[in-house]
Amino acid sequence: MSILSNGGVQRKLLAAFFCLNAGAASAGPCSSYQYDKAESFAESSGKEIIRKYGGGKNNRIVMRGCDYNSYTDRFRIDMEVYWDGSFFGDKYNVDGELRVDSDGRNGEFSMTYQNSAAEDLSFFFGVLKFGVMLAQ
To answer: How far apart are CA 7 and CA 61, in angstroms?
Structure first.
């Protein structure tokens, strides 16, 4: 009796084959083309983040990492956003993870860190918005 005629071994080989092929459509590091695309998405998202904090100058957006999932057709981008404030001149920093479709739509930014200056500015804008709501 050959090893391949054994039903248990055949099932195990078949299961291993499907497991290996299932990983073919999973997340992995970005290719150079995908990296360029992700860099563009990070830049746009970083500018939007800075705008939400009231704007600034000397903007710098750093992409620390990029993964692309070929199954979901989405990027996962680790990024850092730095800028100097327009109002107070402080130096701000926000880090996080951007998840976005490969066409640039449905972007979601999850903040993982903000320095104390960004935290203070966020609190300031929150108080300002609350004051405007009370005044109406």
So the answer is: 56
Give the dihedral of Cα atoms 17, 18, 20, 26; nearest 10 deg. 160
Q: Which helix (H) or strand (E) holds 110?
A: strand 108-114
Q: What angle do CA 38, 42, 48 make, to 5 degrees?
A: 150
Q: What is the mean pLDDT of residues 110-132?
A: 80
Nearest to 100 by CA among 31, 43, 32: 43
Quote the pTM value. Answer: 0.74
Query: DSSP readout, 64-92?
Result: EEEEEETTTTEEEEEEEEEEEESSS--EE
Cross-strand pairs, 65: 78
